[in-house]
């Protein structure tokens, strides 16, 4: 289908984009890579009067070192996140998860910030960002503020970004030398996961961080499993016992791809696999 007619704005600075957002309010929609927005417009699930394209704002693109964190611009593509040396060195989990997003064409257009702002519970980047304790920098008319990962994902397709704000960059605390694995379960290649598990571990195992994809309306941490893994040795039996708690506190959907209890089973099995791979024990 053809989208409803809209005006197209192409600002070249964040300030210009914010001014346009302020002027048009609810009638406006931000465009990043368009890989989620354009299907929504074409299906006429949303009909903004104005589309504000961020692609002309070069300051929103790129990855830099900032001491104890790396900083990823919102308009950086999945392809660039996957391949960047700073990401591989300090946030390996993100590089591995970005490699699992859709297919090569979508990874070259879709953006890190767009995927996180879209907040699809089946999106591959929310759980790794949560597990790594990402900090989300959003800019609005009153300036910038930082939202901690635990507060960013509010509900299904809903984040802490205000209607008059833009996600500008994401700070990822360095996890240098941590092992990592993203275990994604799909029935069809290049698709959203039925369930996925994002794991990063320090040593074997001093500390573990486990994020769950598609196990509720937002990405979740498997905190009981994390607690059970802290200080544990990465033996198959020990890891699988800790992974038995991975579905605690989750509320996954039931749909054509699987019932909720099947997803909870998957979360336990995939967590065991992911932890063993992250710890280099599989
Ligand atoms: C066929 C197909 C398969 C896919 N498979 C997967 C998959 O396996 N895993 C996966 O994770 N994703 C998948 N995706 C989605 C893809 O990752 C998109 O890149 C992503 O969801 C949205 O990023 P985008 O840059 O394209 O954002 P857009 O589509 O441009 O925007 C998405 C939403 O976020 C808002 N937004 C964007 N940027 C900002 C910002 N900086 N500040 C505030 N709001 C903003 C927009 O207004 C819009 O509401 C798939 C998409 C397609 C079309």
Could you please describe the fold and organization of this structure?
This protein has helices at residues 14-24, 37-42, 78-83, 85-90, 92-98, 104-109, 112-118, 126-131, 149-152, 223-229, 236-243, 260-278; strands at 7-9, 28-31, 50-53, 63-66, 69-73, 135-140, 143-148, 153-155, 158-159, 166-173, 179-185, 195-202, 207-213, 220-221. With 282 residues, it is α+β, with helices and mostly antiparallel strands. It contains 12 helices and 14 strands. The longest helix is centred in the last third of the chain and has 19 residues, at 260-278. The structure holds flavin-adenine dinucleotide. Flavin-adenine dinucleotide is lined by residues 29-37, 39, 54, 74, 101-102, 106, 110-111, 113-115, 117-118, 120, 123-125, 161, 166-167, 191-192. Keywords: FAD, Flavoprotein, Oxidoreductase. It holds the Pfam family FAD_binding_5. Residues 1-177 form the FAD-binding PCMH-type domain.
């Amino acid at each position: 289908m053809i989208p409803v007619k809209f005006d197209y704005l192409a600002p070249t600075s964040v300030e210009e984009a914010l001014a346009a957002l302020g002027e048009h309010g609810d009638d406006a929609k931000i465009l990043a890579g368009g890989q989620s927005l354009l299907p929504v417009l074409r299906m006429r699930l949303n009909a903004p009067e104005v589309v504000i394209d961020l692609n002309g704002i070069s300051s929103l693109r790129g990855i830099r070192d900032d001491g104890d964190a790396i900083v990823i611009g919102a308009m950086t593509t999945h392809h660039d996140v996957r391949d960047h040396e700073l990401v591989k060195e300090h946030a390996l989990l993100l590089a591995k998860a970005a490699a699992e997003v859709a297919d090569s064409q979508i990874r070259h257009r879709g953006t890190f910030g767009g995927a996180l702002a879209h907040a699809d519970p089946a999106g591959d980047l929310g759980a790794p960002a949560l597990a790594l304790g990402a900090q989300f920098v959003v800019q609005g008319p009153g300036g910038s503020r930082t939202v901690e990962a635990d507060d960013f994902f509010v509900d299904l397709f809903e984040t802490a970004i205000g209607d008059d704000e833009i996600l500008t960059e994401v700070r990822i605390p360095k996890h240098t030398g941590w092992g990592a694995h993203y275990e994604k379960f799909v029935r069809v290649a290049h698709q959203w996961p039925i369930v996925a598990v994002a794991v990063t571990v320090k040593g074997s195992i001093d500390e573990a961080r486990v994020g769950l994809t598609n196990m509720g309306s937002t990405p979740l941490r498997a905190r009981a499993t994390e607690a059970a893994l802290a200080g544990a040795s990465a033996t198959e039996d020990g890891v699988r016992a800790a992974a038995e708690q991975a579905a605690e506190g989750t509320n996954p959907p039931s749909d054509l791809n699987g019932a909720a209890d099947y997803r909870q089973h998957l979360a336990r099995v995939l967590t065991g696999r992911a932890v063993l791979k992250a710890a280099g024990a599989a």
